[in-house]
Design a protein that fits this description.
Pfam families: Asp23. The protein is an alpha+beta fold. It has a single domain, classed as Alpha-Beta Plaits, CATH 3.30.70.1350. The protein is 31% helix and 26% strand. The protein has four helices and six strands. Strands 3, 4, 5 and 6 form a four-stranded mixed β-sheet that branches. Strands 1-2 form a two-stranded antiparallel sheet. Helix 2 (23-35) crosses helix 4.
């Protein structure tokens, strides 16, 4: 049954047989390409992804859902973005990058790349040293 879900690459004249790709492999390719786009903080994962990551196993395809409808590939990408980036620019860059990367690696074309922004992650604030916690900003060296 698993063979029915595999994606068969177009028969080429130089091929000596058929080439099949499991959709999960395409999700990994798209996930890696999405994380490399500037402005993307991380991909959305599930509880299972988080548990696996604690044990050192990373799922690079997390946050990507690939569907095949009428011989068309549609990718849904769920991402967290860095605060302060232009959402339309990052989404457009992701769409272009994912289409190019998949075409380059597999000769497959994506008919749609739907970018779902799940959240925005603010920059981390600088840590305050415990000795400076109750220090007055008005104090100068002359007052001591």
């Amino acid at each position: 049954m698993a063979e029915e879900t595999n994606i068969i690459l177009a028969n080429r004249t130089d091929a000596q047989g058929t080439i099949e790709i499991v959709p999960e492999v395409l999700e990994v390719i798209l996930g890696i390409a999405a994380v490399q786009v500037e402005g993307v903080y991380q991909m959305r994962g599930t509880l299972t992804n988080s548990i696996n990551q604690w044990f050192g196993r990373e799922n690079r395809g997390k946050g990507v859902n690939l569907t095949v409808e009428d011989d068309k590939l549609i990718a849904d990408v769920y991402v967290y973005l860095n605060y302060g980036v232009s959402v339309p620019k990052v989404a457009l860059a992701m769409q272009n990058s994912l289409q190019e990367q998949l075409l380059y690696m597999t000769d497959l074309t994506l008919s749609e790349v739907n970018v779902h922004v799940v959240g925005v992650i603010p920059e981390k604030a600088d840590r305050i040293a415990p000795e400076d916690l109750f220090k007055d900003d008005d104090e100068t060296e002359d007052d001591e």
